Please model this.
Amino acid sequence: MQQESAPGYRLDIEAIATWTVVCALVPVLLAMTGIAFNKQVLATAPYASLIRNSTVVAFVCLPLLAVGLQWYALRRFAPYLGLSMWSGAAVVTLVAWICLPYWMFRAETAFDLALLRWRMSDAASVDVIGELLLSFATLGGLFVSLTLAASLLQTLVLRFVTQLPWKIFVIAVVAGACVELVVAHLPDLLGISRLQALNGLAWNGRLVELTLRACAGAGFGVASAFVVFKMLVPVQAGAGGCAAPNKASSFFTLATLVVLCLPVAIAIIGRDGGRAAGLSVLRSFTIAPSIDTSHGETILQHSHPIETRPGRYPVVYFSPDSKYLIVLDRELRLMLVNVATGRQLGPLGDAIALHDDYAIAWSPNSSAVVLRTKGVADPVPGTRYQQNRTVVRKYSIPARQRLGEYLSGADECYESHGQRSLIFVPDGKSLWTLCGSNTSLQPQSTMAVELDATSMRPLQRKLYGTASVSGSVRTLGVSDGTVVYLQRRYDSATDEVRLGRLSDDAAADRVYNLNESGLTGGLLAQGDVIEGGRWIADYCGTPATQRADQKSICRTLTLDSSSGELQRISDDVDRRFERNRQGLARGDGLNVEGRQSATRKKSEILVIDEKSGKVRQRIDTREQHPLTFSPDGRWLVMYSPAAREMNVYRVRR
Model:
């Protein structure tokens, strides 16, 4: 039944339903516009020209389709709304929404940091919860204000064609923005991180993201329509009342349940489908083993737990003499621990800032440890980004007293994201810290700075020189008694690796093409370690020369760091994404592998002979997996994700 409320507008259940569906489709269409805009098409790809032209058409037509759908839905409410009038207002709004992320960037970043801190805490404190609520309130206030400002012209157009009070549409926009904000960030609070860019995702991942965005858009539609409906048509009870309000109330209830339940359901099921959720339910009804049960030889034996409670992503740094280790705890403090007893001795300095790309280096005699963190932030020229200067501090062990520090000046040494960016020279008299650059690499850019190990004063700077064409340094290492750096450059046929010494001004004196015989074709480099005369390069992916039935592999190349001679090639199944299986190799021919049960709170630890593949020991234990061995091979640290604790195992030779 249709209710004629006023000459300038018409309100019925079909208009409300149409508006809600269109509001759900608009974010999907705009997200697909972003996919088309960011789509990269190689010139050698099949049908490259057709794909490129299709993306251009999609980029132009999808926003126009969104505007047309909005006009179609609103015309059922406002019959006198012209397409040209609405299109003009909608174009202005779209331009305003393109600028919206710029204003929202800092608020979104603050909320993401507070959210990450809340997730990493075992028991959220009042400060953590307060920071999360304050950042969300700041984000919400900014989002609602900007949404209202962007929709101002559209609001005036609707006021003009319907002759209704302008406050109705203002309240509707504010209510819709508030609900959209809550629904859009509901997955964050439920453990699903939102992805801004959808390019590169599989279609099932894109479907999840588009569904979440559609729910947020539908939330705006339901809330705004509800405000208009309640202000124009009071709910009538009784048998003699109009049927439209009753139908509308039922629709609002159903739509609200769908908008809120879909994100919750996706969070419970997860991105990998309902199987993971079902297995998690089965595991929740089982009991974890209280003691270890060992079979075979007694190589690993539980010794004691570590007193420090680690964060969600455990990190352990052993001292060279294996007497101490450093653990990043749940409060983001670097805690010094006695290995033999598991007792914590205290933190090194202040807590690490969230997202701080810090680095740690032990002195060769284990008497001191050096910590690299972020310092003062300088603006990156020509951008709105910043880059932090380097701060290096030295602490005594075990007293943990600060012995000195190095504070980088402007344009001297910026934060580096190298795999190993801080390293002592073998004699312990000095150390090198790797430097990034706040501009593109030039021959005069600083590669690394050498610091005196006693006073922490800079001794010399290593410039990139002609090596700048090979890109930034990936990692540092020790070869032939001196500190060396590694650069890697890819192209279609080569995997060029350059090794050079930091102690002189010469360019890289060793250049290798690891793909010369097709060893790394189709594989992606995972990391490099240069230590003890060996250079170990890890790769994962699908080989370019694979058979039709071959799956992804992980390949480890062991080379002589002096001559570059290939000593060994080791291939294994790609286990990077296997949640229930994690292994750790040991240098003397033993592999320790952890296998977590999918349906029970237990794990199986296997000690495997690397040459023969024979299982020498099997341990049935609680949920845990191996992390790292001590340098002397006498200790093994294991981590239990469920209990958030670490255990030390004694290794018997």
About this structure: The first strand starts at residue 3 and ends at 6. The mean pLDDT is 81. The CA atoms of residues 9 and 78 lie 5 Å apart.
